[in-house]
Amino acid sequence: MRSNDINLFSYSHRYQILLPLLQAQSHVFYTGEHCGDWHSSPADATRCVFHLVMTGQCRLHEPDQPEVVLRDGHVVLYLQPQWHQLRGHAGQNAHMVCGYVDFKWPLSRYVLQQLPSRVICSAEQEPALRHLLALIQLEQPMADTYMLQQLCDVLLSYILRRELCQPVDALSYGLLSLAQDPTYGVVLDAVWQQPEHAWHGEQLARLVHSSKASFYRRFKRLTGLSPTQFVTMVRLFWAKQYLAEELSIEAVAEKVGYSSASALSHAFRREFGINPAQWRLQSQKGGSEKEV
């Protein structure tokens, strides 16, 4: 549950930090029409899934939950893996686009754990969603998988942005709590904007006018992370962005606050199992990163 009593103050710009940290990537596994008496379930129940109802109707079934009727323009997005099934409804055909969504970045879970496990949106209430679905529908006959996936990425980002802007449950913890905290939110801003700075506990504590011990306790309660873990993850996020720009490993290390290329490589290998040069080579070849 979410509390509506939380003041979102100047939070409006911080979802622009959290959205890239999610690094959501879609993979379309089905596009087509169901008709007659049908039912289908995702082949892999351990992954997050999305379903777009382009035309027609169907029913969404989950264990121990009332069925939900989905109609033209409905989007269902699971932010946590959950078994579910789509079924025919009242003899209606249903034209669907279905896919998996992967969250590649280690910090993703510290955002996702504060979002609803399932989101249902309707294009009737959201014009932007209606336009995106229209583009997807236009692209389907072209059978261009790459373009279809790019459009689904944009659609998912739109929905995630909307969810990130909602007040968070005051009793939960994660990066949304940090972003929405009227005092500690400045820590997110500062580390994001200056990953090259030599951040340490006392400096971060001074940002919120707190002692080091009190800061550590409050930060851990808000996020579930130590300040050091948080700074490291933000630095490695920016390191990947700079590596994609063909900067040298030494230059990347300097831009994200590591004393040397070997220090960056050590942190990179500890987190991802490969060094920066190997990651860049995989990225250039279209290879997949190690998922964490």
From TrEMBL:
<dbReference type="InterPro" id="IPR050204">
    <property type="entry name" value="AraC_XylS_family_regulators"/>
</dbReference>
<keyword id="KW-0804">Transcription</keyword>
<dbReference type="Pfam" id="PF12852">
    <property type="entry name" value="Cupin_6"/>
</dbReference>
<dbReference type="InterPro" id="IPR018062">
    <property type="entry name" value="HTH_AraC-typ_CS"/>
</dbReference>
<feature type="domain" description="HTH araC/xylS-type">
    <location>
        <begin position="185"/>
        <end position="282"/>
    </location>
</feature>
<dbReference type="InterPro" id="IPR032783">
    <property type="entry name" value="AraC_lig"/>
</dbReference>
<keyword id="KW-0238">DNA-binding</keyword>
<dbReference type="Pfam" id="PF12833">
    <property type="entry name" value="HTH_18"/>
</dbReference>
<dbReference type="InterPro" id="IPR018060">
    <property type="entry name" value="HTH_AraC"/>
</dbReference>
<dbReference type="InterPro" id="IPR009057">
    <property type="entry name" value="Homeodomain-like_sf"/>
</dbReference>
<keyword id="KW-0805">Transcription regulation</keyword>
<protein>
    <submittedName>
        <fullName>AraC family transcriptional regulator</fullName>
    </submittedName>
</protein>
